[in-house]
Write a structure and sequence with these properties.
The complex is a heterodimer. Chain A is mainly α. Chain A has one domain (32-90, 98-216). Helices cover 76% and strands 1% of the residues of chain A. Chain A is built from nine helices and one strand, in the order αααααβαααα. Chain A has helices spanning 2-7, 10-36, 40-58, 63-70, 72-88, 100-128, 137-154, 158-175, 184-213; one strand at 94-95. The longest helix of chain A is centred in the last third of the chain and has 30 residues, at 184-213. Chain A is elongated and about 75 Å long. Chain A starts with a helix and ends in a 12-residue tail after the last helix. By secondary structure, chain B is α+β, with helices and mostly antiparallel strands. Chain B has a single domain, classed as Orthogonal Bundle (Arc Repressor Mutant, subunit A), CATH 1.10.10. Chain B is 60% helix and 17% strand. Chain B has helices spanning 2-14, 17-20, 22-32, 39-45, 50-62, 85-104; strands at 36-38, 66-73, 76-83. In chain B, a hairpin with a 2-residue loop joins β2 and β3 (76-83). Chain B is elongated, with a radius of gyration of 17 Å. The mean pLDDT of chain B is 85. The chains are: A mainly alpha, B alpha+beta. Chain A binds chain B through residues 1-2, 4-6, 8-11, 13-14, 16-17, 20, 23-28, 30-31, 91-98, 213-215, 218, 222-225, and chain B through 4-6, 8-9, 12, 22, 25-26, 29-30, 32-45, 47, 50, 53-54, 73, 76-80, 95, 98-99, 101-102, 104-106, 109-113. β1 (94-95) of chain A pairs antiparallel with β1 of chain B.
Chain lengths: 225, 113
Amino acid sequence: MQTYLHKLDTIDMQAKTEQLARLAENTSRYARYSRTAGGLSLVIGGVLCMAAFTIGALVDLTPAWRWALVSAPLLWLASKELLRNFYYQRAGAVRERLSDRQRRVHVWMVAYLATMAVVTIVGFTWTGGARAWQWPGIAYIAIVAAMPLVAARWFWSTGDFLVGVLLVCQAAVVIVGLSYPSYWILIAGLYAAVAIPTGWREHRDYLRLRDELGLRDDGRETANA
Amino acid sequence: MKHEAQDAIDAVLAVDRLVHEPARLAILTVLDGAELVEFGFLETVCRLSKGNLSSHLSKLEAAGLVAIDKSFRGKRPLTRASITATGRDALERYRRQIAALIGAAPASNKETP
């Protein structure tokens, strides 16, 4: 038996076991990018957030500017989807298995937003009366009501949550002809200062991951079979 | 001593050969790291040809270790695989067996060359 065990290359087995553990971990990391498109989408979100609040506070908002600011969250979500489908999932989609903790945090974040949305809508309709249900009040209500649904579908990290909520709130305020005061530029700047470096770091991590998994030269065509 | 040797032999023989095969082990490991994985990703990271991967997936599916979902994205076929609870148990059992085997091997064999 000793001889047989000597024949088993335990060093090789140990190395392979470690490699496999690394492969499982890398798959989980890839799955996270595959779900959130974190990285570049956070960079874009940070830039959009900063630009939207600067324009909202400093520029005389013509209807064209207002529509541009209202479409900022849609633009961000569209960029997120495009990045997810055509960049971070180029080697094929992998659905992340969420831990109980991740799921709990996500549910709490969405529940918090849903509560805030209900409070905001009740307050708005209470003070606005019948006017709240006419244009543009109805658009405000629709945007606020959509916020928790958007969060449930797209906001999978704290960065997404902060940037996304800020952009959606800006869209809701701008559509009723108002805008955030100029000190909000500082708050948006603070968010952007967190989101942009975080997103860039995540993106560089993805590039390293892509090399480790050997995905560099693989195109979308290999994703299907 | 004789008992220990017999136990070690039993441990080696008890290793699940379906899981032990390197390609299938890699497939199960990747699937264990996610909820659902597209065929293309498996093909790339496991360094397997389409035919080889299909063959291994079929064996794993027949044993109930993985579940395969076939559909279409537009006109292109889309194959996705996921590990089942049985598959996860089998992989975990295999990992424990291998860890025990490595632990049972003589110390001289574990040193880095």
